[in-house]
Amino acid sequence: MPGFEVLYQAAALCLTYPDDDFRARLPLLREAAPQLRAFTDHAAATEQCALQAHYVEVFDFRNRHSLYLSWWTDGDTRNRGMSLVRFKELYRAHGLEFTGEELPDFLPAVLEFVSRTGDMTMLTEHRDALDQLRSRLTAFGTPYACVLDAVCATLPPAPTGARR
To answer: In whole angstroms, what is the distance from residue 83 CA to residue 116 CA?
Structure first.
């Protein structure tokens, strides 16, 4: 069984838009992270255009499936700005500068950060959000739920009384 670092990096790649590079990485992802095989097997068996259309349908048209962790805690409020600053500060504290096109709370970016640094602060602080996302993806019937299942299985339970 690979370490969680490999799983987090693989999960990050699985949760990004499935471009041509993604298709080329599928065999490596399948071998490196067996916990993600249900998803990688589905992705390998699905035509590229259908996989891309499904990603857009799941993640781009619905906030109910948001991959932005602070959205789950702050919504589209003024408080979200401070949450985003916390993410950037954490990256900087580890000598990393967030320069991606996405916001710093984008789950694939957070997973990649954790895989590189081992600092699970943001994943554990947003455990309830991850559980909510996982539940909604499962109810929606998307294979992306398998990726969240694997990530959540590595985390301690959400604190009792966490928001649902």
So the answer is: 21
Bridge partner list, 106: 68
- The pLDDT of residue 19 is above 50: yes
Judged by DSSP in three states, 144 sits in helix
User: Which residues on neighbouring strands pair with residue 147, listed in sequence order?
Assistant: none
Distance separating alpha carbons of residues 112 and 131, to the nearest angstrom: 19
- Measured CA to CA, the distance from residue 80 to residue 70 in angstroms comes to 6
Summarize the confidence of residues 88-111 as an average pLDDT. Answer: 91
Sign of torsion, CA 152 156 157 158?
negative
- Asked if 121 contacts 89 with a C-beta cutoff of 8 angstroms, the reply is no
Among candidates 60, 23, 20, 22, which has minimal Cα distance to 142?
A: 60
**Axis-axis angle for helices 127-140, 144-152 (nearest 10):** 150
pLDDT for residue 164 is more than 50 = no
